[in-house]
Amino acid sequence: MSKPLILVTNDDGVMAPGIRALVEVADELGDAVVVAPDKPQSGMGHAITINATLRVNKIGKQHGTNFYSTTGTPVDCVKLAVHEILNREPDLIVSGINHGSNASTNVIYSGTMSAAIEGCLEGYPSIGFSLLNESIDADFEPSKIYAKKIIQEVLKNGLEKGVCLNVNIPNLSSREIEGIKVCRQARAKWSEKFDKRKDPGGKPYYWLTGAFENHDTGEDTDIRALNNNYVSVVPVQYDLTAYKSIKHLEKYDFNVE
Amino acid sequence: MSKPLILVTNDDGVMAPGIRALVEVADELGDAVVVAPDKPQSGMGHAITINATLRVNKIGKQHGTNFYSTTGTPVDCVKLAVHEILNREPDLIVSGINHGSNASTNVIYSGTMSAAIEGCLEGYPSIGFSLLNESIDADFEPSKIYAKKIIQEVLKNGLEKGVCLNVNIPNLSSREIEGIKVCRQARAKWSEKFDKRKDPGGKPYYWLTGAFENHDTGEDTDIRALNNNYVSVVPVQYDLTAYKSIKHLEKYDFNVE
Fold first, then answer.
1. Which of A121, B35, B67, B73 is such that its CA lies 20 to 30 A from the CA of A164?
2. pTM for the full model?
3. Residue B111 in 3-state DSSP?
């Protein structure tokens, strides 16, 4: 019997240490193929390339795994992999391991999670992994243990239709991590500030900065789990309909004479 | 009493005819200020600019409305407007009118809707408008009638916390449009194809193409409403948690020895 085919992508680019860690795990559990952006694409959200061309570059085999890079976004990578690069359908799509948190509302801005959501839209079980450490020197060894367990369970049990997983891992040693918790997305948000500067010609420009603020005190949130040293697993859907609001809106006067 | 302050943005860029149509409506109902991308940003999803600088360009007043462009994405425009450009909090954020559909799962790829979702994250009532006509010569007059009605109702009644509106308008005359329907997002998807070509040097490149396929036969979907000549209004939330799947996932063996 052939091993499961696991597509590996990310948003930090094909050279990021985080994707190497994920490839090692995927290679243990199946046949991994990497299709990832050729440059960092953090914060790209669910961007796709529709007004420009795309290139695919075959990097070659590394430790038995085929690596491809593309000039596109993480979502483009999933589309190119599924429709052009892979010679059979993947059994699983994994994205990451992202250098930095994608917990709570970060999921919306995240290229890592958009790749997973795209995989889910295409009909494949998909998981995004993120480690709460943005450093290039982050230690991914504890993450690998938890990524492996979660991938094993998803390969065994599958995922419900229209649902993928957003996995965030606290920046701790494996001894310090308490386990895995299934959670909901915390109602938190970025409180932005722009750092306004002047260029050498005296003209203003801006850097986006800010702090992440959580005022959600629920005990079932991903932020709470991470703060309590747990790996958080949030099931994520691409149906954005606010079903509870449909009744509310039906009271509005939408009659146009 | 001062008139409501309405921030207008889009993803087709500040020069697009669609945004002019929305500004005309916003100006009738309040004080409009435009902060929009300086170039087309279709398909940018919820992208933000975190590894590059941003510029803001004051274009000036046109028919009494202040126009600004930025070098950023639609989401960047909302953040810059709220935190740097507007001198008071907006009463409403509107995005569009997009040249082309953002119904069904298009909401995920849409820069227009990401601007509205960002406005909602920032805590303001927000609406994205799209006309089902991608042409630069599209007739926005019927859209203006429906945009006006919906904006009036939202200014009067507000929107529930964490919810914004995704409004799609069929490409019909105002006599042909049957009215406004509150709907859910249809479970449809893009069936992608890549158009593979060779550059003059013989190297391959790709264009993303494809067809939108709807297999959702529900009577309460946005696609159904549009096909029946109605304007569709879908309440959209940024909480992506698939709540129904939490119980399902708790059966998985997530114990790591």
1. B73
2. 0.93
3. helix
